[in-house]
């Protein structure tokens, strides 16, 4: 009986220890997942739902011949997907005040940062824009029924998981624009990639913002920053180059041949078939813009692995990955960057990896916890930078300065609790921690680039 009691106590103790060990291992695995998630491809249902254009790809390919026939007289109408122009922080003709130069870090023109000017509030816009973002339903009605519907109600309830230090601001507010430029310059970024649509056009939750471009250019000029757009762009309109191309803050990239060319990040480039792009972007294309006044560097979005071959065939000058969610797509997965860089090197293409501080969009996609990436007090961001530097890219892009809906912002955020809502924050660090981390890695990148070139 004594031996039986001893063995029973031993088994209980063993089970308790084993249970605690399992819980410890599970917690460690969850923490590691935020830094390096499983090698999930883009085929998971959450990914496909966030980029439904991929589901349409088969339709585009099936109708390939019809598209080619139609495009001969109307190629340009298919190319309204150019998604980015940039604003670089190269020195402007009129230098800024000396005090600014003393206080702020020097700009790194190989650090490009995505910037959004689609926010509005009653004071400057007559109403809230984008801060009142609707809750997006899941594509499966059965799942959608389990989640709330409606819109956010600013200023206390906004469409974001973090809360900006500047509050629910308007992108038209001059004091906000200046604060943003100062923050980006303090972070030692050099090129502002502005989300842009042609005049009269806007995203489905916003309003036209083209009239803001001259103002942003002027403030970028003041802070020695440069600009290029990231949005819808019509080649036959060429309004950007005509209206803003001569501004000293309009970004032009120096190529290996010594040419200075504008640069465009092309979002959703994979939606249009390569043959249509090739008409515009290859020298032999029937409507080529190469070696014309409209020539530029065109950087395509790479999501799936096969897109790299489409990008090459299309005549693009390079590729970028955009998404700040490691493991969300093939392109955004850090462990694929080395092979993508090798492919680009062997095909005379630029590879621009996109790094981000984390990802959370459950304020607008409440069903999308699957793609959340915890910031881990800045460690996630630094892991992304480290992965990018390993492949020695010519340019690194940052997602993002202020995409608050998807929680990728490095703009200053503050703790806030209101009613039922408790916003995330950057504690135990200060609101500017991600600006400081960006500046730190900008300097590290600059020094390592010097070593690469030796």
UniProtKB/TrEMBL annotation:
Pfam families listed in its UniProt record: Glyco_hydro_99 (PF16317)
Reactions accelerated catalytically: N-{alpha-Glc-(1->3)-alpha-Man-(1->2)-alpha-Man-(1->2)-alpha-Man-(1->3)-[alpha-Man-(1->2)-alpha-Man-(1->3)-[alpha-Man-(1->2)-alpha-Man-(1->6)]-alpha-Man-(1->6)]-beta-Man-(1->4)-beta-GlcNAc-(1->4)-beta-GlcNAc}-L-asparaginyl-[protein] + H2O = alpha-D-glucosyl-(1->3)-D-mannopyranose + N(4)-{alpha-D-Man-(1->2)-alpha-D-Man-(1->3)-[alpha-D-Man-(1->2)-alpha-D-Man-(1->3)-[alpha-D-Man-(1->2)-alpha-D-Man-(1->6)]-alpha-D-Man-(1->6)]-beta-D-Man-(1->4)-beta-D-GlaNAc-(1->4)-beta-D-GlcNAc}-L-asparaginyl-[protein] (N-glucan mannose isomer 8A1,2,3B1,2)
Keyword set includes Hydrolase: yes
Record InterPro entries: Glyco_Hydrolase_99
Cellular location(s): Golgi apparatus membrane
Main location: Golgi
Keyword Transmembrane helix: yes
EC number of this enzyme: 3.2.1.130
GO MF annotation, one: glycoprotein endo-alpha-1,2-mannosidase activity
GO cellular component: Golgi membrane
Gene3D superfamilies listed in its UniProt record: Glycosidases (3.20.20.80)
Keywords for this protein: Golgi apparatus, Hydrolase, Membrane, Signal-anchor, Transmembrane, Transmembrane helix
Recorded topology in the membrane: Single-pass type II membrane protein
CDD domains per UniProt: GH99
Enzyme class: hydrolase
Protein family per UniProt: Belongs to the glycosyl hydrolase 99 family.
This protein's name: Glycoprotein endo-alpha-1,2-mannosidase
Organism of derivation: Probosciger aterrimus (Palm cockatoo)
């Amino acid at each position: 009986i004594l031996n039986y009691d001893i063995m029973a106590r031993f088994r209980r103790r063993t089970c308790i220890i084993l249970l605690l060990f399992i819980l410890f291992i599970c917690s460690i695995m969850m923490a590691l997942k935020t830094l390096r998630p499983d090698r999930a491809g883009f085929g998971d249902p959450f990914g496909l739902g966030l980029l439904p254009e991929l589901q349409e790809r088969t339709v585009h390919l099936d109708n390939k011949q019809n598209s080619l026939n139609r495009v001969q007289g109307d190629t340009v109408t298919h190319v309204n997907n150019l998604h980015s122009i940039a604003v670089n922080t190269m020195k402007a003709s009129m230098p800024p005040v000396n005090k600014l130069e003393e206080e702020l870090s020097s700009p790194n023109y190989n650090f490009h940062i995505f910037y959004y000017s689609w926010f509005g509030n009653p004071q400057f816009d007559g109403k809230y824009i984008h801060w009142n973002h609707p809750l997006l339903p899941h594509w499966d009605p059965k799942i959608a029924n389990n989640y709330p519907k409606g819109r956010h109600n600013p200023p206390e309830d906004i469409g974001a998981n973090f809360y900006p230090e500047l509050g629910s601001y308007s992108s038209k507010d001059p004091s906000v624009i200046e604060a943003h430029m100062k923050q980006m310059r303090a972070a030692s970024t050099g090129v502002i990639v502005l989300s842009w649509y042609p005049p009269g056009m806007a995203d489905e939750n916003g309003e036209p913002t083209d009239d803001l471009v001259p103002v942003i250019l002027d403030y970028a000029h003041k802070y020695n920053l440069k600009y290029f757009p990231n949005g819808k762009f019509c080649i036959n309109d060429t309004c950007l180059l005509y209206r803003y191309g001569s501004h000293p803050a309009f970004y032009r990239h120096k190529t290996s041949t010594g040419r200075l060319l504008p640069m465009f990040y092309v979002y959703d480039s994979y939606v249009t078939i390569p043959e249509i792009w090739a008409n515009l972007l290859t020298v032999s294309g029937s409507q080529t813009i190469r070696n014309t006044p409209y020539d530029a560097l065109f950087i395509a979005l790479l999501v799936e692995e096969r897109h790299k071959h489409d990008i090459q065939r299309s005549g693009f000058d390079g590729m970028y990955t955009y998404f700040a969610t490691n493991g969300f797509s093939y392109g955004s997965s850090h462990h694929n960057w080395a092979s993508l860089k090798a492919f680009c090197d062997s095909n005379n293409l630029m590879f621009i990896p996109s790094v981000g501080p984390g990802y959370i969009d459950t304020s607008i996609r409440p069903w999308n916890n699957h793609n959340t990436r915890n910031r881990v007090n800045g460690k996630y961001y630094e892991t992304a930078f480290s992965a990018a530097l390993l492949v020695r890219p010519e340019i690194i892009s940052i997602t993002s300065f202020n995409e608050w809906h998807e929680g990728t912002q490095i703009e200053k955020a503050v703790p806030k609790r209101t009613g039922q809502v408790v916003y995330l924050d950057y504690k135990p660090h200060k609101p500017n921690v991600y600006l400081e981390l960006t500046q730190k890695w900008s300097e590290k990148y600059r020094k390592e680039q010097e070593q690469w070139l030796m």
